[in-house]
Each structure stands twice: as structure tokens, then as C-alpha cells.
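Quick one: structure for this chain?
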Amino acid sequence: MSALGTDLVQTRVLGAVGRGKPPVHASMSIGGRWVGAVSGARIDCIDPTTEELLGTVPAGGPPDAVLAVQAAWEAQGAWRAMGWTRRAGMLRDLAAAIGEHAEELALLDVLDSGNPIAGMRADIQSAMAEINYFAGLAGQTHGVSTPTDAARVSFTQREPYGVVLRIVPFNHPFKFASGKSAAALAAGNAVIVKPGEETSMSAIALAEIAESVLPPGVFSVVTGTGVEVGDALVSHPDVPRVAFTGSVPTGRAILRSGAETFTHITLELGGKNPLVVCPDVDPRQAAVDAVSTMNIARSNGQSCGSTSRMYVHERIAPAFTSALVDRLGELSVGDPVDEANDAGPLAFSAHHQRVLGHISRAIDEGATLTLGGSRPEGLDRGFFVQPTLFTDVTDEMAIARDEVFGPVQALLTWSDLDDVVARANNSPMGLTANVFTRDLQVAHDLANRLEAGYVYVNGTGRRPPGSPFGGWKHSGMGKENSFEELASYTREKTITITLPPRAPDWAGS
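Got it. Here's what it folds into:
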């Protein structure tokens, strides 16, 4: 791997960022070159645990977007032409190279995002698995033939869009920058990643690793804010395919921007995901599983799939609540580098203030703060929030409607199955839903009636490889982690060939 930052710093991000080390002033990777922003502007990267400076990244803008798109198109033709078997082999090599730096990458995300070390180790393994999965699917972007008469041949073929923009959020920085690029690369596209501006370090480290495996320009990382470089990339007329993971308001803005150029856009957006707990389950085990579904020990509850809206049958609600308080109270919150801690801080200051604002509003609206709600005792620095539980919540309260994106759960009770289905579905979002029950008939009924793109029964948020993931309603459009995602990075072309008449003297020639 080459040195990172030809004119800014003679070091690499990978392994260079750490507490007690000098701040790393990183470059971004465009077309196989390490560059700063044309404007020279930069963004601070703050350790959310210590609130100290880890380093800086370029604050890209429209001129950088133009350069990135041009470089991607220059690289894409050869990448497509090499064929799927060679692309698949390079993707497997990329996954293996990531594995060689797994511990460094996990630690880098811990320092940059505040997520716990165990969760970030799992993220690296998940990213490698996703890259290998799409490497295995790379040959499936084939077409089909259509029966016709003897004078014609008709068939389809799938062709890559050419250049794909992947905009990823702050909550799983490396996993999303790498795993969510795999399908587009496997299909023959060059990929530009725009990471979350608060957590860009590991995407730059990924570009370091990729330059030793992939052809120059096939994978680029452009850092900066969504308003500046993100919008410039989305609205660029030569970016025909955009995939975004993030908030509902930003998803709407991307759709509006992409409409001008008829860009193919898929969105994986937020969720206010219901968990319906039926009276036939063990309430203590259900409470343990309900904490697992919140992803507190994976990403401090900063997950679009977290089941933060729990509907618990009134018969078992007291036992469930008691067990839930016990389990949440067992979680150790502190420095996420320390393996003894289950959870760390939220990713950045503004988000920390948003989550505290949700908690304050819930109290003002009359919900009972049963656990947590503030900074843990003894942690005076860092963007920490205790695991928090609200009870006596009603459906009209904001804490039952709005995505908090932090370690905050709301508990509501129910007694009638039809009523709880209507309440669970009474949300503009529909990403996931979960049902805890031992009754297969109830499980099947609820799975069919809940309005969500992914329904778990007795699940804790873990998905089998290849199971399509994507939301309904305001939670997005399109599917990921499956063949459907791979196909979405291609366009189908139909070709019909009318055969010329046979020459009259052919039989005698």
C-alpha cells in the first residue's frame, strides 16, 4: 500500500490513528490518487469518548465531485471488460486483505465512532462475509432468451450502470463503506463512497487497502458534508445510480435532487420498529432478547433496525419490565476500547444533544423515566447516554413515534391482537418488525399483517446471508444484502436480431 496523503501527511490512516498519537490529516482517494479538497477546507474528526481531535479529513465540494466522477468513468470500462470471474477474484482478495487488518480497522471505528470494540470486530467480519457473498453471486447478472419464430433471436442482457454513488451513514462506518459497495463492484461498476462526515477515517483506510487489490479508480472515497459534496455527486448528470443509507429527510432531498437527471435511486432509511411481545413467552428471556434487538452492544442503539417501540401484553408487562430494567442495568457503559464495556458514547456532539432532547420531551409529555435518561455517573466527558427505558408510554407521544437512534426504548402495553396490529402499523415508517411468541399460528398471522419490509419472529436482529433487507413506506425503497441488490446495479437491455434470408445459392456453394 502506498503512503497516504502525498502533500498533506506522509503516513497512513490505517494504524496511524490512536489516542496519544498526533492527529492524522488524511487525504481522500480519487481515481487512485490521494488528494485534499480543491478548496483546501477540512473537517475535524473528534473522538466521541474523549472529545479530543483524532485528525482531519478533506471537506470536499463540487469541484471534487467532478473529479471523482470523471475518474470513475475512466476506470469503469476496463473493470467491466475484465469479466465477472476476475472481478469476483479481486473482491475475494479484498475481503482477505481486510481480514489481515481486522483488528486495526475495528479499533479505528471504535475511536472514530464510539461504537464498542466487540461490535466493531463483528462489523469487520460482516463486511468480509458480504464482499465474499457478492463475489459468489457475480456471475448471476445474466439475461434470458425469449422464444420466438425461426427468423428471429431475442434475448436480454444485464449491463452495469457504470458509476455508482454509495452514501453511507455514521453508525457502522467500515461495514457500510465496504459491504455496501460489494454488489455494485461485483456487477461491474466503479464505486464512489461518500462516508458520514463525522466518521470518515475507516472509509479512507478501506481505500488504502483497496488500492493494493483493485485497479486504480475503481473504488474512490470522497469526504465532506452532504450539503456540499454529497449533493454535488447526487445531482451530477454522469452518476446514473445512487444508493443511500441514512435519515428520512436526507432521503427525500436525494430523491428530489436525483429527479432532475432521472437517477436510479435506492434508499435504506430510518425505522421506528415495533416489537410485539405475546403473553405465551418467558418474560425474562423476552426482555434479554429485547435488549439484543436494540443493538446497544453493537452500535450504542444507533441502528435503523433497533426495536425501540415495544408492545408488551399487559399480562406479562410487570415481569417483562422488571427483567428489562435488570438487563439494561447490567450493561456497562464506558470507554468502548475497553472490552469490559458493552456500550460507548454516541457518535458526535450534535447527535448526543438530539438524543437528550428526545428524552427531555418524553418526560415533558408524561412518559415515566424508569431507567437512565442522562449521562452515566463518573463519565464527565464524551457523548455518553445511559441505556434508557420509558414506561407508561402512549401511542401519541413523540417517543413512540420518532426515531431516536440511540439507546432509548419505549414500552407500551396491549390486550387485543387486532388492536396492537393497528397500533404497530400506525407509523409512516416500516423498516422491520418483530414478534415474540410460541404460537405458530399467531406468528404467521402477525408476520403477514405487520407493515414492514422485514419481519422477525423470535429474532434478535440477525439476518441470514442473502435474505433481502429493505423498508416499506417512508423507510425506503429497494432491497439490499441479496440478489435483488446485485441486479439493481445493472440495467436490462433487450436485443432482438432478425436473421437475414438465406442466400439462394447457399445449398450449392
